[in-house]
Amino acid sequence: MDERQVQWINDAAAALLAAERDRVPVAALTERRPGLALDDAYQVQAAAIARRIAGGAHVIGHKAGVTSRAMQEQMGVGEPDSGVLLDGMVLPSGSSLARGELMQPRVEAEIAFWLGRDLAGPDIALEVVRSAVSGVCLALEVIDTRFTGWQITVADSIADNASCARVVTGPVVPFDPDMDLAAEALVVSVDGRAVATGEGRAVLGHPFRALVWLARRLACFDAGLKAGDLVLAGAVHASLPLQAASTVRARSPHLPPVELRVA
């Protein structure tokens, strides 16, 4: 990578961090650089994450995004993306979040996993993932874009850490191999009114497939998922606007509910 490319990546990362800090969105990267390669977008993401780590943040996991048809259609993309979860992003169920801390937030419910062992390599299979998962929970992911509006490409989303802003995790239960997570039906309510539903199979046919995809993608960068990581499999429904003075709750038959209060 030449010096000008390195400088552009660092400048793009700095602009995204400044947009989040100041809550002033910037133009999509693909408007300024049409045809932005996904590898370059991941380099922008990595540069921004490195700056956060230098500022004291700690990596606690990863997310797979736009893994369901509903989200791909909503976002106008045809493939998943991934982002990094930092400790300051994650909140326990029942937490309050100020709407004014974000710019254009949306919320989505998903199934999340805690890993009991490492997952790494380009040939990870579904059964290997199954044996690596130690815990499972419901999660509410708050996505936000640091770009002007949600008219973005998958490359823009990747550069923007897969649009991840906050993650609210419900109580974790031990993973039981007999759990049929593909059939687990999630119901999302806002202020007590059901507004969205989706089953685990909406995520690439089975939420474990998101972990397979993520482990294989990370292997391209000589990285992987680690024991102890929190991993989000992706939304089972199209995202919803996150409104102030509301309470968002997700429930399912076999996993404890998760709740977020928005001020």
- Taking pLDDT < 50 over at least 5 consecutive residues as the criterion, the unreliable ranges are none
Shape descriptor = globular
Residue fraction in strands? 25-35%
Q: Which structural category fits the helices and strands?
A: alpha+beta
CATH architecture identity? Alpha-Beta Complex
**Any idea how many domains?**
1
Mean pLDDT across the residues is 95
CATH topology: Fumarylacetoacetate hydrolase, domain 2
**How do the helices and strands follow one another from N- to C-terminus?**
HHHEHEEEEEHEHEEEEHEEEEE
Can I get a quick summary?
The protein has 263 residues and is an alpha+beta fold. It is 28% helix and 32% strand. The strands form 3 sheets. Strands 1, 2, 3, 5, 7, 8, 9, 13 and 14 form a 9-stranded mixed β-sheet that branches. A 5-stranded mixed β-sheet has the order 4-16-15-10-11, with no helix packed on it.
Written account of the structure:
With 263 residues, this protein is α+β, with helices and mostly antiparallel strands. The chain has a single domain (3-262), classed as Alpha-Beta Complex (Fumarylacetoacetate hydrolase, domain 2), CATH 3.90.850.10. The chain has seven helices and 16 strands. It has helices at 3-22, 29-32, 38-54, 69-75, 126-132, 154-159, 207-219, and strands at residues 59-65, 81-86, 90-92, 96-97, 106-115, 119-120, 133-143, 164-169, 173-174, 185-190, 193-199, 224-225, 230-235, 240-241, 246-251, 258-262. Strands 1, 2, 3, 5, 7, 8, 9, 13 and 14 form a nine-stranded mixed beta sheet that branches. Strands 4-16-15-10-11 form a five-stranded mixed beta sheet, with no helix packed on it. β15 (246-251) and β16 form a beta hairpin. α1 crosses α3. The chain is globular, with a radius of gyration of 17 Å. 45% of the residues are buried. The model has no long low-confidence stretch (mean pLDDT 95).
